[in-house]
Amino acid sequence: MVMACRVVNKRRHMGLQQLSSFAETGRTFLGPLKSSKFIIDEECHESVLISSTVRLLESLDLTSAVGQLLNEAVQAQNNTYRTGISTLLFLVGAWSSAVEECLHLGVPISIIVSVMSEGLNFCSEEVVSLHVPVHNIFDCMDSTKTFSQLETFSVSLCPFLQVPSDTDLIEEEHGLKDVASQTLTISNLSGRPLKSSELFKPQTKVEADKNTSRTLKNSLLADTCCRQSILIHSRHFNRTDNTEEVSKPDGFQEHVTATHKTYRCNDLVELAVGLSHGDHSSMKLVEEAVQLQYQNACVQQGNCTKPFMFDISRIFTCCLPGLPETSSCVCPGYITVVSVSNNPVIKELQNQPVRIVLIEGDLTENYRHLGFNKSANIKTVLDSMQLQEDSSEELWANHVLQVLIQFKVNLVLVQGNVSERLIEKCINSKRLVIGSVNGSVMQAFAEAAGAVQVAYITQVNEDCVGNGVCVTFWRSSPLDVVDRNNRIAILLKTEGINLVTAVLTNPVTAQMQTKEDRFWTCAYRLYYALKEEKVFLGGGAVEFLCLSCLQILAEQSLKKENHACSGWLHNTSSWLASSLAIYRPTVLKFLANGWQKYLSTLLYNTANYSSEFEASTYIQHHLQNATDSGFPSSYILNEYSKLNSRIFNSDISNKLEQIPRVYDVVTPKIEAWRRALDLVLLVLQTDSEIITGHGHTQINSQELTDFLFL
């Protein structure tokens, strides 16, 4: 990557400054409107276009200790969830700056660790009020509703954080069960921006619907009494069950008896659109893949009475750069690319069912399985006078071919590498050998074709051979899909196979990796939403609730310090308790500032605000109203309910449209928060070179600064 650098002040915490520097490089990836970056290799001058945090970090110099810790945190999040990476990186930077400010004010490290950990735990508990249950998605399949009916909407932010700009859309009393929890971005076909005041007008407490607020708050209060802490960060102390309630400020302790409606999502298309975050083309492919899996499950069962679970391990991608994006599609079966030299073989096999063999390891002459011990003291002696026309590999390849001929096998799938010499011989005998096949693909063909996977070709017998596999070209005209490496796309399938392949195409080769990354991000969002059977209201609503709750906690700590200390730490020393009373509001304030920066950057990246300062001012306006109400979650939900009130301009068209919501996955989001704060606190506690500036007045000014190269 082209070298970038940032000045690092040696008087301040080096590790935290490095984290902030790394995080700064990925701030444009936050939100649905990502700004792509060109990464240029200085040595070979090659470039690639990226728009994800993972690909960015792959191009940065992360050889430092802090860089390696950051990379481990990002890779752990990506390998598990495939989403929440940009949030993690941004919060690492925001909270690193927050901790630096706390250190600058003289806050003890133990207090920073304890209060920030407990503050995040508190946020993780409070956001439960924004859960939307996802139940019976496949019990209410509506074949008439399609993804394209909803994908025309630009969905990104929650209503009161989004500047509307649409003259062709109007609110509708559509059949969604919880209109109070709708989240949307309204797109403007005319391009005329509206002022933020046209969407939201400040409301006095007298004008507010007190009954609605009290009702919506009840679920949060009811959960608070019995809920366990979701995340435990601090190794120094934790709240116990009997102190959990007093740990909350007065505004959070009030109990009411009313209950509010249960907000639900029971439609697959609505859920998919809500989780697409503006990437409609990728999510549409994912939704179609889920539909194919569901239909296949119904066919296999003979009915759809059994619960269906989306199996993401049986979803695969096949990237074909150079083709138009309109060629992207989802197909049942396994689509892969093979050399053009296999063209006559495929033509020979495509009109007949073929027999298949599955090889678990490599299909090479010198391959031995893991744990194999070669016999010692054995030498192969050849007669020097005898002419060896064939090498050992040639003899081995001939033997493999004889085995395939003996059992009438025309298709071999290999999980590892394949001998080039063997491939040539198989092509000449009209047999297809495919290497580097995913283990889940092997298992799927084993289940559907009745094959048994073996480690060596010598283990093949009649019981190991599968039947009824169909081999054909992906397109009727295979030469139309030849890539730059002279490979063609083929389709392998058999009756009842539980495999779905998403074919991803793009005319620009540099964008191919980005397209695949986005597909998997959407796939994992939908997977975790269906697995957990719940989602968050998205578009920044959850982060705004965290910001509001921390703001209230900080204010309560200032007003009732003694009560707050006894609630959080009743078994600690008086010194620690008094220190908490002094510093707790400050630490909570800086922790909340991280959410403030997050939302400001999110709004700024949507291009609706001229600066982050303007976006921050807009957020602060709503924050003040939310904290004044004493019920932040109720305030958020009440703002959603205004979508059905007559708050839009009178010049809006009378055309009715169904407006989709925005959702976020629950566990991946909270885990991104946890990993971000854990990383910041780890760097804080393990870096022993913390220079506060005291006693260093004689140091040369040039020695106080350094450059961090990225």
Observed structural traits:
disordered N terminus; 11% strand; single chain; 710 residues; alpha+beta; GROEL, domain 1; 6-stranded mixed sheet; GroEL; 3-stranded antiparallel sheet
Concise account of the structure shown:
By secondary structure, the chain is α+β, with helices and mostly antiparallel strands.
Overall description:
It is a single chain. With 710 residues, this protein is α+β, with helices and mostly antiparallel strands. Among the domains are: 14-134 and 537-685, Orthogonal Bundle (GROEL, domain 1); 312-368 and 392-532, GroEL (3-Layer(bba) Sandwich), CATH 3.50.7. The protein contains 20 helices and 16 strands. The strands form 5 sheets. Strands 7-12-11-8-9-10 form a 6-stranded mixed β-sheet. A 3-stranded antiparallel β-sheet has the order 4-14-15. Helix 11 links the parallel strand 8 and strand 9. It is elongated, with a radius of gyration of 30 Å. The N and C termini lie close together (8 Å). Residues 1-5, 163-262, 382-389, 568-572, 644-658 and 688-709 have low confidence and may be disordered. Belongs to the TCP-1 chaperonin family. BBS12 subfamily. Pfam families: Cpn60_TCP1 (PF00118). Keywords: Cell projection, Cilium.
> In percent, how helical is the residue content?
40-55%
Biggest sheet layout: 6 strands, mixed
Figure out the total of helices: 20
The structure class reads alpha+beta
Q: Supply Rg.
A: 30 Å
Straight-line N-to-C gap:
8 Å
Count of strand segments: 16
Query: Strand content of the residues, in percent?
Result: 5-15%
Low-confidence segments, given as residue ranges, are 1-5, 163-262, 382-389, 568-572, 644-658, 688-709
Morphology call:
elongated
Name the CATH architecture of the domain at 14-134 and 537-685: Orthogonal Bundle
Query: What is the class of the domain at 14-134 and 537-685 in the CATH system?
Result: Mainly Alpha
Family: Belongs to the TCP-1 chaperonin family. BBS12 subfamily.
Subcellular location: Cell projection, Cilium
Keywords: Cell projection, Cilium
InterPro entries: BBS12, Cpn60/GroEL/TCP-1, GroEL-like_apical_dom_sf, GROEL-like_equatorial_sf, TCP-1-like_intermed_sf
